[in-house]
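so im writing up the methods section and need the Ubiquitin-related modifier 1 homolog record in one place, dumping it here so i stop losing it
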Amino acid sequence: MKITIQFGGGVHLLFGNIKLHEIDLPDREKHWTIGDLLLWMTDNLLQERPELFLQDKSVRPGILVIVNDTDWELLGCADYVIQPKDTIGFISTLHGG
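--- predicted struct ---
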């Protein structure tokens, strides 16, 4: 299943400084949820400091997750079932200074 993952607000720095990933998720019998995707991203894309991205099997507070321009909280958060061609964005709202 092909999806797009986008990073903003500095989150891309944890993923090899790449802001856009076109992903072809492996086929499997069970559907993909965002929770499943987070674990897959940790194993396959995340390059450093997982503690800045994940907390208790979800994204850390301060990271917005957007699915096709909609806040994931309106879609069931980590339980949202990913659809082909979805665009999933991760945006950090926390900035140092």
